[in-house]
TrEMBL record:
Keywords: Amino-acid transport, Membrane, Transmembrane, Transmembrane helix, Transport. The chain crosses the membrane at residues 26-48, 54-72, 93-114, 134-152, 164-187, 207-229, 249-266, 286-305, 339-357, 363-383, 404-423, 435-452. Its main location: membrane. It holds the Pfam family AA_permease. GO terms for cellular component: membrane. It is found in: Membrane. Residues 25-432 form the Amino acid permease/ SLC12A domain. It is a multi-pass membrane protein. One of its GO terms (biological process) is transmembrane transport. This is Amino acid permease. Belongs to the amino acid-polyamine-organocation (APC) superfamily. Amino acid transporter (AAT) (TC 2.A.3.1) family.
Amino acid sequence: MPSSSTVGTPPEPDVTLSHGLKQRHLSMIALGGVIGAGLFVGSGAGIAAAGPSIVLAYALSGLLVMLVMRMLGEMSAAYPSSGSFSAHAERAFGPWAGFTVGWAFWVLLCTAVGLEGIGAAKIVTGWLPGTPEWAWVALFMLLFCGANLTAVKNFGEFEFWFAALKVGAITLFLVLGVLAVGGVLPGTDSPGASHLGELFPHGSEGLVVGLLASVFAYGGLETVTIAAAESENPVRGVASAVRTAMWRIALFYVGSMAVIVTLVPWDAKAVVEKGPYVAALDQLGIPGAGQVMNVVVLAALLSAMNANVYGSSRIAYSLVERGHGPKALGRVSGGAPRVAVLASCVFGFGCVLLSYWRPDDVFPWLLNMIGAVILVVWIFIALSQLRLRGRLEREAPERLAVRMWAFPVLTWVALAGMAAIFVLMAREPGTRVQLYWSGGMTAFLAAVGYAWQRRRLRATG
């Protein structure tokens, strides 16, 4: 293993990337990143499993995510980098750690690009039956690949308007929902507590399923710390995004779940079949609610697709800059890592093709392999923060523009929460296989990263 001083050596700064993201871009990326596709698409199954306790599930997982974001914000404000948590892990534990978490996250993001493209294509083919799904996915891929091949401000503009649409839609939904619950929306009667019933209709098992569903709905929050490295003022951008994460999560996730289970019976078939937001709007008699929400879901999927093309290319670029990948991926022209963008898009479209060519074996294996990667990332974030905080206080306390609350107590609380989620995943047959395959990929990458680190040490020793 490398010495302490070697571990603490900062990765090279991202000097060749442009800094074309404005503060308004970063603010909206942070705001829109909270409203991910998982909120609109995956929450129905969680409500059906957990009933009214889905509000508790989202609140608990939301608290965990707030702690993770605070830890990540502390490190990213101190050391802005397009590698984000991968660069922080390397700074804390050595090159093997940065290699492991960086490439695991790259695989996750590239696969997610393909999945989001498939989801978006299904919506469009519903409007235009007879058109091939793969062609729509290819079109979306070309669009966002082209946007990310050019100046970073194009990515920022796409995300700005996607986020504005998502924020506007969910804010309007919350306003209408609160008015209806309060009995002041014209043409509707307040349901009171008539739809809430028993808090745990399926017992603790239902809460567990809802908790696991809610944890993975928060994916995407990390993008803002990656994007901050290319903003006009990285430290200010990260600090602002992290400090406002709490009310965003409470309002958009926990608030909307509370409105939905109050307005609609949790066991209504429409919650799963149409989606919880459409079911709630139908309950209010809003005309064309289904099509309106389809537009919003499409925007959420395309937004996530764009953000993941961006995030995967920057993670790959950062890894190569730190010596953890083929040098060709690190080539920058026009302020953008264009080869990394192309490689990420090709990998993502390859996942799409696998979903058509090998839907029963290779594609499910790929999905299982990325199933628990986000938890692996969170664990690396917490462990890195534990190690780097003391070093920062000794060597550069002025860099602590963002501080983790009640350190180190809440960092350990967050780690305990992550361990509990792993235990819950191991208990559930549907998530146990994800745990095994994600763990296997992480162990493989750690072994390769450690061997690569040892080789580099011998070469320089």
